Amino acid sequence: MRASPGSEASLWVLFRGQLRRDLKLAFGQPSELANPLAFFVVVITLFPLGVSPEPGVLAGMAPGVLWIAALLATLLGLEALFRRDRDDGTLEQMVLRAQPLYLPVVARMLAHWMVTGLPLTLLAPVLGGMLNLAPEARLPLMLGLALGTPVLVLLGGVGAALTVGLRTGGVLLALLVLPLFVPVLILGVSAAELAGSGLDPTGPLLWLAAGTSFAITTVPFAIAAALRIGVETG
Amino acid sequence: MKYIPDGLRRLWHRMGSPRWFYETTGSWVPWLAASAALLLGVGTVWGLAYAPPDYLQGDSFRIIYIHVPAAYLAQAGYMLMAVCGVVLLVWRMKLADMVMATVAPVGAAFTFLALATGSIWGKPTWGTYWIWDARITSVLILLFLYLGIMGLRRAIERPEAAGRACAILAIVGVINIPIIKYSVDWWMTLHQPATFSVTSAPAMPPVMWIPLLLNVLGFNLLFAVSVIQGTRTEVLLRERRTRWVTDLCRQERA
């Protein structure tokens, strides 16, 4: 049975198709998949070398360092987010389809998060251990990253979509999205720090959860609008 | 739609025409500029020379006469840009894009002025040029948002696409500004003991706040005149291939 365009069934098919395709493409290039993670680990390694290997000092700055490294690793993966789709014309087809862009965009961002934000989240407690992060802060750090990295990916997606047709994307992209990352950084770090000093981290985590829900419902519209412009300019 | 008065509706439709804007505002600019100069002159001289010194901060508080209007316009400018962005995306009004293109550098300049005066003010009051105070930090992030929008506009070659891209970014930014502000406030309460605070007098006497009021009005007019004049230039630049602009240039030359 073929569903008519715009019906619920066809949108769901579209969503799953997009997700499957993007994951397949991502796993087709394992080296690209591993790069942001390797970057994450290397940046973390620089801090004991550059600041101090003293366990006490490291423990104090561990939440901030882990979060900033996660921010930068996310940023690194963003530039290529829509580039290949744009170069081979897939993006144009996506925009020209009769169905609204919202769900395919959500699927695209979800796939991207599954190969960047999720592994970062899983890797964070290990690196936290290396930075002497307080054991009781590890779970709040992970929860914070699990809730916060989707927001980073979505907000970054707006920047990536706006700069998709441009030759000078990289640095401009950082300038566009890093200021928008500030609230996520603050909330994520404060959750881990509160837990590290024996306080209840629920507050910032709930705020992060609220931010994630808000971002998932609204930001894909901005990404879709930006992609339409990007396709027109290209 | 029938509840909107006819005059307002006509004005709205006319504003869609850059030519109408150019021709109407031409006579405004000298008046606005003159009243801005008058208000700023009176307000600044009064504030700097005649207002009494603050009982705690002495003369250093006088920078408030520049700092406060600049800081307020820095935020208002971003709001204006976002409103123009909505108008551009919804009604495709070309003039909104031209205003948006002009507001970005003007707003960024006021933001920088607010940061610079705040930093200079910080030295005598807090003993340092820069502290990571909540307000300073959020204004710094506001400056980054302005710079991002300016950079994006410069990077996209086609002006129409650049306008709509900047509109999206401005709207995303304006939703984020309160979130950034609250998160930074929270970060402050978590990190910083409240040792530093602006120790201003509880309530200003009129001789202190009247010059401030004059300067706020004057800065508003200065902002308006900068934006209007900048938009007029933008109109000429973008419409340079149209008949009325070439006619205008021919008249000027003759």
Verbal overview:
- The complex is a heterodimer of chains A (234) and B (254).
- Chain A has 234 residues and is mostly helical.
- Chain A has one domain (8-233).
- In chain A, 82% of the residues lie in helices and 0% in strands.
- The longest helix of chain A is centred in the C-terminal third of the chain and has 32 residues, at 202-233.
- The mean pLDDT of chain A is 90.
- With 254 residues, chain B is an all-alpha fold.
- Chain B is built from nine helices and no strands.
- Chain B has helices spanning 6-15, 18-25, 28-50, 64-91, 94-126, 134-155, 159-191, 206-238, 243-253.
- Mean pLDDT of chain B is 87; it is low at 193-197.
- The chains are: A mainly alpha (234), B mainly alpha (254).
- The A-B interface holds A 155, 158, 162-163, 165-166, 168, 172, 175-176, 178-180, 182-183, 186-187, 190, 193-194, 211, 218-219, 222, 225-226, 229, 232-233 and B 89, 141, 144-145, 147-148, 151-152, 155-158, 161, 164-165, 168-169, 171-173, 175-176, 179-180, 182-184, 186-187, 190.
Taking Cα atoms only, what radius of gyration of chain B do you get, to the nearest Å?
21 Å
How many β-strands of chain B, per DSSP?
0
Runs of chain B in which pLDDT lies below 50 for 5 or more consecutive residues are: 193-197
- How many domains of chain A? 1
Number of helices of chain B: 9
Secondary-structure-derived class of chain B: mainly alpha
Q: In whole angstroms, how far apart are the ends of chain A?
A: 36 Å
Structure summary:
The complex is a heterodimer of chains A (234) and B (254). By secondary structure, chain A is mainly α. In chain A, 82% of the residues lie in helices and 0% in strands.
Helix-strand layout with pairing:
The complex is a heterodimer of chains A (234) and B (254).
Chain A: H1 8-27, H2 30-50, H3 55-78, H4 83-87, H5 90-96, H6 102-115, H7 117-130, H8 135-162, H9 169-196, H10 202-233
Helix pairs in contact in A: 1-6, 2-3, 2-7, 3-7, 3-8, 3-9, 6-8, 6-10, 7-8, 8-9, 8-10, 9-10
Chain B: H1 6-15, H2 18-25, H3 28-50, H4 64-91, H5 94-126, H6 134-155, H7 159-191, H8 206-238, H9 243-253
